[in-house]
Design goal:
By secondary structure, the protein is of the alpha/beta class. It has 12 helices and 12 strands. A 6-stranded antiparallel β-sheet has the order 4-3-6-1-2-5, covered by helices on one side. A 6-stranded parallel β-sheet has the order 10-9-8-7-11-12, sandwiched between helices. Helix 9 links the parallel strand 7 and strand 8. Keywords: Detoxification, FAD, Flavoprotein, Heme, Iron, Metal-binding, NAD, NADP, Oxidoreductase, Oxygen transport, Transport.
Length: 404
């Protein structure tokens, strides 16, 4: 167990926090290169697409800065620790990984900043990292204790269903014939596959897109193409592998459900589910669960996508709304095609505008769950707060790099 930081160490870490605001990405990019050179097996734990784009290094730099800036008031970090711990536990990050990360991160600070960091300041950062590692290991230990299983477990793809031009669902059943585990609606799993062109396993986290019922775990995966304007960044490797190379009967390795972006099933107040694109997946789990439980809670399902070709689950959603008077929908298409039917496939053109759906979606005491691209969630969160929604009632899910 690490010793508490001294007042001098706290002051030194806090005083050098601005260094990470200025040089953090340079340090963290150096860190990843250094760590993978020294411990190449750890490449199996990290998304190599995010490494290539630099987004993972930038996210780590922001996280280190936030920790340093709040070293004297860690409560200010809010839910960040729990969210990161859930991501780590889903990736099977273990206590033995923390010393490796610490050694390479602190060495990178010295190698990038040189004489700008004196020994007392470096020692303060060592102590600060040890404190952070202890916090994270403690939180993750509790998550592991409560998990349905430890590490990766083989699942059979029992069904594969095309949901739209971009999204395909995979129904996963335990290879040992046991029942699928329970989970909280909104949680995710990590799926691991070997990527031959990289020579490593690659993990990806996918929201569960169905209600917990013991029959299967369903993930619904968007096939990601190369980002526009970034020809040096390849298409989504694992999503391509799943779409093209994983058929019914295939075995995939899966970790236990994790995540703190969960529907609060103890409440009876209204629920507003707001999604963009493939962000619909955890909302499907939440709505499916409410319907399966026979809940009478008022539900507004607000979804945005380009058009009907990429709109997954649209028939199921329309049928659910028709059968349950407590469920309403507001679907926005930004690029309507001739095949899209107003009032059947979609309800509004353009982007989500809560002013148009205030009667459906701005509900007293409602909880708002947001999932989609980070800019989408930031915009929707700001719009809701601007309309008087309490920020404490707005919940977001983030995959990849970034935060809201």
């Amino acid at each position: 167990m690490s010793s508490p930081l001294t007042a001098d160490q706290i002051a030194r870490v806090k005083a050098t926090a601005p260094v990470f605001a200025e040089h953090g990405a340079t340090i963290t990019k150096h860190f990843y290169r250094r760590m993978f050179a020294n411990r190449p097996e750890l490449r199996n734990l990290f998304n190599q697409t995010h490494q290539a784009s630099g987004s993972q290094a930038e996210t780590l730099a922001h996280a280190v800065y936030a920790y340093a800036a709040n070293i004297d008031n860690l409560a200010a970090l809010g839910t960040a620790v729990g969210r990161i711990a859930n991501k780590h536990a889903s990736l099977n990050i273990r206590p033995e990984h923390y010393p490796i990360v610490g050694e390479n991160l602190l060495a990178s600070v010295v190698e990038v900043l040189g004489e700008a960091v004196d020994e007392p300041t470096l020692e303060a950062w060592r102590a600060a990292y040890a404190q952070l590692a202890q916090i994270m290991i403690g939180v993750e230990s509790k998550l592991y204790q409560g998990a349905a299983w430890s590490g990766y477990r083989p699942f059979i793809v029992s069904r594969k269903v095309v949901e739209s031009d971009e999204i395909t669902s995979f129904y996963l059943t335990p290879a040992d014939g046991a029942e699928a585990c329970g989970f909280e609606p909104g949680q995710f799993v990590t799926v691991k596959r070997y990527v031959g062109e990289l020579g490593v396993d690659q993990p990806r986290q996918y929201s569960l897109s169905d209600a917990p019922h013991g029959k299967w775990l369903r993930i619904s995966v968007k096939r990601h193409g190369a980002p526009q304007g970034k020809e040096d960044v390849p298409p989504g490797r694992l999503s391509t592998l799943l779409h093209e190379g994983v058929e019914e009967g295939s075995i995939v390795e899966v970790t236990a459900p994790m995540g703190d972006f969960c529907l609060d099933r103890t409440k009876t107040t209204p629920v507003v589910l707001v999604s963009g694109g493939v962000g619909i997946t955890p909302m499907m789990s939440m709505l499916s669960s409410l319907v399966a439980e026979g809940s009478t809670r008022r539900v507004a399902f607000v979804h945005a996508c380009r058009n009907g070709r990429v709109h997954a689950f649209k028939t199921w959603l329309a049928d659910t709304v028709a059968k349950h008077s407590n469920v309403a929908r507001a679907v926005f298409y930004e690029d309507v095609t001739d095949a899209d039917r107003a009032g059947i496939d979609y309800d509004f053109t353009g982007r989500i505008d809560f002013a148009l759906i205030a009667e459906q979606a701005l509900l007293p005491d409602a909880d708002y769950y947001l999932c989609g691209p980070i800019p989408f969630m930031q915009f929707q969160r700001d719009a809701l707060i601007g309309l008087g929604v309490d920020a404490a009632r707005i919940h977001t899910e983030v995959f990849g790099s970034g935060a809201v």
